[in-house]
Amino acid sequence: MEQFDEPFKGIIMAIEDLCSKILDEPTIESSGSIGSPEGSSTSMQQSGDGTEIKQLLVQNLQLELPFLVTFFPKLSSIVDSAFLGEKTSVNQSGRDSYSQTINVDSVAGVRDTIDIKANADRLKHCVRKFIQTICCASPLIIHLDDTQWADPESLDLLYQILIDTFNHDALMVVCSYRSNETTGGNHLKTNLTDKILEFSDKNPVWAVPIYTVTIDNLLVDKLNSFLQDLLSGDFNDNMELAHVLHDKTRGNIFFVNQLLVALHKQGFLEYSLGIGKWIWDIQKIRQEAPPADNVVELVKEKLLKDTKAMQLLAIAACLGSQFSRANLMLVVEGIRIKAMSSKRKFKNTLVLYSFLSLDFDTADLLHHCHREEYIQPTAANDGFHFFHDRIQEVALSVLPDKVVLVLKY
C-alpha cells in the first residue's frame, strides 16, 4: 500500500492485478506480492477459460460494472463491451449525484476526474460485490504489502470484505507491515484486527481466523547458512564473515544484500578463478566497509554514483511503487518536450525538467536498473515495481524538496 493521500490505492492496484491475471492466463494458479510495495497482488485458482467468472460478473454486477470500470479499465475487456456501453453518473462533490455523466466506453483518464473520497461508500459497495463474485467462482488470495501506510478507508473496506459471509472459506487476505512503523491509533492492529476479533466474539459461527507471523532479522547461524548457499563456501569458513555482516546489519536480509553488493564493488569480496571460490579480506571488511544500519543511506550512496539511473528512478518513484513501461516512457518524453519548449519556473520551486538532464536511452536504462536490482518486472502489463520500498524512498529523496512534475498547464 502507498504512503499517499489517495485512498484505496493499494486495493485498487491489487484488483487491477487480478483483472490482468484473469485476462492473461486461462488457468491461474500463481501468487505474487505488492510493494510495496511493492504494493499489492492477488492469486486465485481458476478452472476453464474464465467464461464462468465473466458471466458471473455481468450477472451480479449489472448496476455496479460501469462505475467499477472507471477504476479498473481492464474489467471492460473481461465482460461484454456491449453491456458497458451504458452511461452512469458519478458523484463529484458528494452532494449532486448527477454532477457528471461518464460514458464508460471511453474511460481513459476518467478515474482522475472522480472525487474518490466523495464516492468512498459507493466504491466500497462495488468492490465488496466484485470480491463476492470472484469468491463464488474461485478461492482468492489478496496480498497487501506495507499496510502500515494504509489509509482508514482501505482498512474499513478490508474489514467489510473479511466479515462478509459470502466470502467465508473462499478468501484469504495477507497483510504485511513493519510493526516499528505503526504509530498512533491509525494502523492495522487498531483499525482492522481488533475490530475483526470483536466481530468474531459476537458472531462465533462466522468467526474470521487471524494468524500472526512475526518475521525477525536473521540470527548469525541463519545468516551463515545464507552465505553458504550464496558463496558456495564451507559453513565454518563463512562464520567469521557472518558475524561481521550481522554486526553491521543486525541480520536484516535487505541490508545484507546491499552490503554484499557494495563489498564486491569495493573489491573486498571477489571470486577467485585460480582457486575456484569466493574470497574476502575480513579485516578490511570489518574496518572499512560502511555500516548498514541505515539502508536508505547505503542505497542512496549507490544511487548518487549511478547518475542516470537516479534520474530515471526519480521519475518512476513519482508514478508509484508500480509503474508500466509505457507510462514511464511517456512521462520521460513529455518531460523532454517541456524541457525544450519551456524554461518556466514556479515561485520557490524547481520544475522537474529543469532538474533532470534526461540524456539517456529509457529502454536501455530500464534494463540497467533491473540488472542492478533497483526494480523488478511485474507479472502483467509489461510493468515494474521497486525491488524494495526503501529504493523508492531513496529515489524520491534525491529530488529537491519542492520539485514538481509539470507536463501541461
From TrEMBL:
InterPro entries: Hybrid_Histidine_Kinase. Residues 28-48 are annotated as: Disordered. It comes from the Eukaryota. Residues 28-43 have a biased composition (Low complexity). This is Phospholipid-translocating P-type ATPase, flippase. It comes from Nitzschia inconspicua.
